[in-house]
């Protein structure tokens, strides 16, 4: 069987499984496979809607190749909005950064790459996620500037920071059930779902933020595209001033930028 025939057969299998861009994904998996047996294994996993990033064990974020496993949420282009917003907010690079719910470490590693003199603390409840973040930090040369802590959001964090960032769970219970099976059946539920209204974890972060921020600090927190008004009100009620709502490349509301009043 020729390579073209192999790709065609693989794409047909992926199309039958409901994959949107079967030929593109077949090519990606074929390029990563060492032999036909590996490719067939990859295709079988993708037929079960396992995300390509988990099959390959990697995902690009902010031009950085990061390890990803089922213990962490797959970094998405929309989350790069937080990096862009942080870079826009600081004329002088911040010295201290806090990343709540770091997962793969994507946000913190990207920021430390942009600001070579900055240091920070990355917190996650999951020990398995922290192991992934540690390997990514080592790979990109920022491990000496990135302290990893196991914890429940900001509990036990007593320091103040120039920048607090987070991509928390923000999907409502009903919406979670409608998610694509790639996400719903494979990515960690605890990194996606946040109570009945999707705001449980945003409320916790907003409540903690005033005691975490330095005087001229900023909190930048990712939100759902339809949560700007409610999330903004949550931060205001918690004692912060909303600077702006940052939009992603698609023009959708994506992050609350807040400061001390």
Radius of gyration: 19 Å
Q: Low-confidence stretches at least 5 residues in length (pLDDT < 50)?
A: none
User: Looking across the biggest beta sheet, what order are the strands in?
Assistant: 5-4-3-6-7-9-8
Q: What share of residues are in beta strands?
A: 15-25%
| Biggest sheet overview | 7 strands, mixed
Order of helices and strands: HHHHEEHEHEHEEHHHEHEE
Q: Please tally the helical runs, counting DSSP H or I stretches of 4 or more residues.
A: 11
Q: Helicity level, as a percent range?
A: 40-55%
Topology, element by element:
Blueprint lengths: L2 H14 L5 H11 L3 H12 L4 H5 L1 E4 L2 E4 L12 H10 L6 E5 L5 H9 L4 E6 L2 H13 L6 E5 L10 E6 L6 H4 L4 H4 L15 H13 E10 L5 H10 L3 E7 L5 E7 L2
Helix pairs in contact: 1-2, 1-3, 2-3, 5-6
Give a verbal description of the structure.
With 261 residues, the chain is an alpha/beta fold. Helix content is 40%, strand content 21%. It has eleven helices and nine strands. It has helices at residues 3-16, 22-32, 36-47, 52-56, 80-89, 106-114, 127-139, 173-176, 181-184, 200-212, 228-237, and strands spanning 58-61, 64-67, 96-100, 119-124, 146-150, 161-166, 213-222, 241-247, 253-259. The strands form two sheets. The protein has a seven-stranded mixed β-sheet with strand order 5-4-3-6-7-9-8, sandwiched between helices. Strand 4, helix 7 (127-139) and strand 5 (146-150) form a beta-alpha-beta unit. Helix 5 (80-89) runs parallel beside helix 6. The radius of gyration is 19 Å and the shape is globular. The mean pLDDT is 97.
